[in-house]
Design goal:
Elements: E1 12-15, H1 21-33, E2 38-40, H2 48-62, E3 70-75, H3 82-96, E4 103-106, H4 116-127, E5 134-137, H5 141-148, E6 157-161, H6 169-177, E7 181-185, H7 197-206, H8 210-219, E8 224-227, H9 232-239, H10 248-255
């Protein structure tokens, strides 16, 4: 999918949240071998070193080059001054052992709208060619309105909790209006949706798993997806979503599951 700065991003990526650093290298390596080209990490995950090692090993095994991959990391919320942003970016780059990032995100907005300096620093890093694209994560409409009031560069995407129980339609409409892509984290609601009867019925209809049905639901709505998996067989299964389509009846049934129910923090009140 093409972002608003014309950079292309894979629709489906691997997220490494809650994977211990000493296990991350193998997971990332296996993901690259199994066809993943987007790897998503963050400072707060404390596994950027393992991610970097896995990237190196995955490239060696596949013969791919660095430019074939799309690597994302994120700035944690207690480091929003200009100087702290630059310092934390450089530290992430060093831990990942990379020359540049494809995407750098402000991880959470916080409660005091204190990200103006961070965004300015990220704009400067982008202009210097150290980041291919910049964006935000967990920003609500009010945060984005604040950011857009002074931003020279519009965020390319907003990474948010999104799944059938939290469809975020109003926020998605706002993002579409401003040509900001949506990227979903926790698309399977931390596994809580895998026994849902509505989804199981649709999965049986298509001969697919519930996870594949949910990921397909995202893709058909032009929602980018990061999904966590540490097992190769699940990584492979999660990518097998491009050989079928959900019909309008399926989409309507899945959309009806929305309850505005979160499994993660509420961005309006989460201040780290």
């Amino acid at each position: 999918m093409k972002l608003n700065n014309q950079i292309e991003i894979p629709e489906l990526g691997l997220g490494v949240f809650q994977i211990p650093n000493d296990e991350t290298a193998d997971v990332v390596k296996n993901a690259i071998v199994n066809g993943y080209r987007l790897i998503d990490t963050a400072k707060i995950y404390e596994n950027e070193e393992g991610t970097g090692q896995g990237i190196k090993e995955g490239l060696a095994l596949t013969g791919l080059s660095r430019d074939d991959l799309f690597i994302t990391s994120k700035l944690w919320g207690d480091n929003h001054s200009y100087e702290e942003t630059v310092q934390n970016f450089e530290e992430s780059l060093k831990k990942l052992d990379l020359d540049y990032l494809d995407l750098y995100l402000i991880h959470w907005p916080g409660t005091h709208y204190a990200y103006k300096e961070a965004w300015k620093a990220m704009e400067d890093l982008y202009k210097a060619g150290k980041i291919k694209a910049i964006g935000v994560s967990n920003f609500q409409k009010s945060h984005l309105e604040e950011l857009l009031s002074y931003a020279e560069i519009t965020p390319v995407l907003n990474q948010i909790e999104l799944h059938p129980k939290l469809s975020q339609e109003e926020l998605r409409n706002f993002l579409e209006l401003h040509d900001i892509k949506v990227q979903a984290w926790s698309p399977l609601m931390q596994g809580q949706l895998l026994d849902n009867e509505v989804l199981k019925k649709i999965a049986d209809k298509h001969g697919k798993s519930v996870a594949q049905i949910i990921l397909r639901w995202d893709i058909q709505q032009d929602i980018l997806v990061n999904v966590k998996s540490i097992k190769s067989e699940r990584m492979i299964a999660n990518r097998q979503i491009f050989d079928f389509s959900l019909d309008s009846e399926d989409m309507k049934a899945i959309n009806s599951l929305n309850e505005e129910l979160r499994v993660g923090p509420d961005p309006e009140h989460f201040n780290f």
